Known about the structure:
With about 325 residues, the protein is an alpha/beta fold. It has 2 domains: about 35-195, Nitrogenase molybdenum iron protein domain (Rossmann fold), CATH 3.40.50; about 210-335, 3-Layer(aba) Sandwich (Rossmann fold), CATH 3.40.50.1980. The chain has helices at about 5-20, 20-35, 60-70, 95-100, 110-115, 140, 170-185, 185-210, 235-240, 260-265, 280-290, 300, 310-315, 320-335; strands at about 40-45, 45-50, 55-60, 75-80, 105, 120-125, 130, 145-150, 215-220, 230, 245, 255-260, 270-275, 305-310. Strands 3, 4, 5, 6, 7 and 8 form a 6-stranded parallel beta sheet that branches. A 4-stranded parallel beta sheet has the order 11-9-13-14, sandwiched between helices. It has a two-stranded antiparallel sheet with strand order 1-2. The longest helix is centred in the middle third of the chain and has 22 residues, at about 185-210. It is globular.
Amino acid sequence: xxxxxxxxxxxxxxxxxxxxxxxxxxxxxxxxxxxxxxxxxxxxxxxxxxxxxxxxxxxxxxxxxxxxxxxxxxxxxxxxxxxxxxxxxxxxxxxxxxxxxxxxxxxxxxxxxxxxxxxxxxxxxxxxxxxxxxxxxxxxxxxxxxxxxxxxxxxxxxxxxxxxxxxxxxxxxxxxxxxxxxxxxxxxxxxxxxxxxxxxxxxxxxxxxxxxxxxxxxxxxxxxxxxxxxxxxxxxxxxxxxxxxxxxxxxxxxxxxxxxxxxxxxxxxxxxxxxxxxxxxxxxxxxxxxxxxxxxxxxxxxxxxxxxxxxxxxxxxxxxxxxxxxxxxxxxxxxxx
Length: 337
């Protein structure tokens, strides 16, 4: 415990006497934030207990920021960290909320950013903000008196190395919405969103339930020597499946991971989905795929069946259900982009 000199305590006492109304107001706010607490949620297999409602949350990247804003929690945020590319925010219901929250950095999140923002909670994911290499982990934040919540899509699964994913991607989205709803006492908002998203996806699935052969789909994120793609626990796997396709790398028990081009050639996808996050552009990625000789005989390339979705559509976020609908329409149409 820090000890303050007696003279300083006297000054503080006089200052507090002179602004009694503000102190009373702060006390009322403190009581309000503590009402109904503590609450406990399960996050990546760990129990997290909150003694009060977080009031200075820092989020890392667009999907995680979307989770907070979709729940109407912008007033609980100290800011967000994300690169310049945020996807089409003009098409989301929480567009105006982005203007109300400080954009703290367009570079990697750090402990210094969290400290400067006086954060009481950081939302990020493993290899997605959190990582031992940059010394930003829930444990390192705890030493600074800052809480941490790990994006469920990124939970480490106990497999080899740093493999991630413990549940189907859309279930991870619903889990995080429910947990944040509980943490911030907005359970009704969270439940309403989950119900809406489940209904949207059920409608899409019903529309293609009677279809015959499901087109095979390869998610191309980036890479020329080896492509970065989506395994069974990354958002695109569920998006592709619910849209009526089959992810050709669904056998990989990980989230975002690399494969060899020979795997793509061998599995011969009917469609390729490009993950667009600005640089290189989706057009540049498409041009590479169409002119990369090893892919010349791959069905998706021969027939120019290449579709683009935003990064914000494909990482875990409230934009996932709309991405399911968009991709389902493309797969059903069966025509070149």
